């Protein structure tokens, strides 16, 4: 696999072929067996048991976008991991959060990050936000065979569009179908409850701080009703991963910041367990 | 039927080396210097889009003199090599030494293969370490040899003269402004001993900065930041000369690389201009 183990030690021709700025195109030429989409599963009876990541939420505000995820991975009715990380920076101005089969998801993110970085290095310019969203679409589509066997990966992609100067959110389905979401979006098993929560709380003029609280509220509501989504774990100090992307780039809130938001919400919920109430009319 | 003339292997190799050297000498020189916080690349390049320096991986940078289409090809090969290696193993397993070896093998094979024309390029592969003692600079001449360099290195047309100039004046622990000024001074000297002025717009400058918080240490220095560094008083320049990322906006560059898309396959800006 590695370049310098070939007979002469010279870079193989595929490395020096001009044309493509895509790392995935290069891989499919040079070593297609590494690409996740080229693997096939033997026919199976029933679903494969593997850890699944659960809820991811995103919401935009004037000047940026927030992407957050809970920390639980489940395998059937077991909690496979309490502190899994499901939200990753894709590059300087975008992030991706993944619900679905954790192992495949992490590999997909790694390849997606590399795809963006590779393009940037070869071309000397970054892809447009739409271009990045489309690349992710292709990657999900290549996983379709696995998805049919229960190993689906469904990401949420959020980024700051430097040309339009605003935060944008893209959601996907298992077939790679991509749709832009306006305002807020959620994916994963708790997404129904998270979306319901944000539907009542979201306003287009929220500030960055308010939006951070909004997404953590939504994750709390998801954890409240979905057993596969983890709430803030005060005893173990495990809090949701919250990231913000603005014109200054990607930033992940540190543990202190996210624990402050989670604790403030927890404090209020001790008096009002169902969270803030929206007006009836 | 004509009988081919006998050419001794020594003569054939000498001819090929001569051909490659002449090609490289047509290009303008560039220099790579260690400074306190990393490695700086300085060269004269009238083009803003066709770069002589670029990022290969997190801590690895690339510089090339000679024929544009040939070194661009090698650069992309290097990026692919590094990204594939980092993907199969880990980001820490991509090293300048490994990359330099692959380049050396590639250049060496091309140089000694009678079916191919030798590449008219001379490369520098540099890796910035956690401290100055971890910095590595490799120079790769056209024939596939590797030279492990320390402190400063020059490649291109007037390389020998510039090298000896730098060797006498370069010292460890220089600030970025000092190193940059020394580099410009060295590049301004012509073969006949005259000095000429190189304006800031014609300079291409990039650094591998070990103090940069991001994983990717490569950064281009452009616009106001470059002028300020060039104007800075060598002695009192230390507090302001770190290439802070807040200035990315000023310089108009993206965080890791220039914003211009190099037109692939285009001729090098310095092709055919003889110094």
From TrEMBL, chain A:
GO CC list: cytoplasm; proteasome core complex, beta-subunit complex
Listed GO biological process terms: modification-dependent protein catabolic process; proteasomal protein catabolic process
Pro-piece positions: 1-53
Assigned EC number: 3.4.25.1
Key words of the record: Autocatalytic cleavage, Cytoplasm, Hydrolase, Protease, Proteasome, Threonine protease, Zymogen
Active site (UniProt): 54 (nucleophile)
Subunit comment: The 20S proteasome core is composed of 14 alpha and 14 beta subunits that assemble into four stacked heptameric rings, resulting in a barrel-shaped structure. The two inner rings, each composed of seven catalytic beta subunits, are sandwiched by two outer rings, each composed of seven alpha subunits. The catalytic chamber with the active sites is on the inside of the barrel. Has a gated structure, the ends of the cylinder being occluded by the N-termini of the alpha-subunits. Is capped by the proteasome-associated ATPase, ARC.
Descriptive protein name: Proteasome subunit beta
Biological source species: Streptomyces pratensis (strain ATCC 33331 / IAF-45CD)
TrEMBL record, chain B:
Primary residence: cytoplasm
GO process annotations (BP): modification-dependent protein catabolic process; proteasomal protein catabolic process
Listed pathway(s): Protein degradation; proteasomal Pup-dependent pathway
InterPro entries cross-referenced by the UniProt entry: Ntn_hydrolases_N (IPR029055), Proteasome_alpha (IPR050115), Proteasome_alpha-type (IPR023332), Proteasome_asu_bac (IPR022296), Proteasome_sua/b (IPR001353)
Cellular component per GO, a single term: cytoplasm
Region (Disordered): 229-275
Keyword Cytoplasm listed: yes
Any one GO MF annotation of this record: threonine-type endopeptidase activity
Regulation of this protein's activity per its record: The formation of the proteasomal ATPase ARC-20S proteasome complex, likely via the docking of the C-termini of ARC into the intersubunit pockets in the alpha-rings, may trigger opening of the gate for substrate entry. Interconversion between the open-gate and close-gate conformations leads to a dynamic regulation of the 20S proteasome proteolysis activity.
Name by which UniProt lists this protein: Proteasome subunit alpha
Origin species: Streptomyces pratensis (strain ATCC 33331 / IAF-45CD)
The organism's taxonomic lineage, starting at the top: Bacteria, Bacillati, Actinomycetota, Actinomycetes, Kitasatosporales
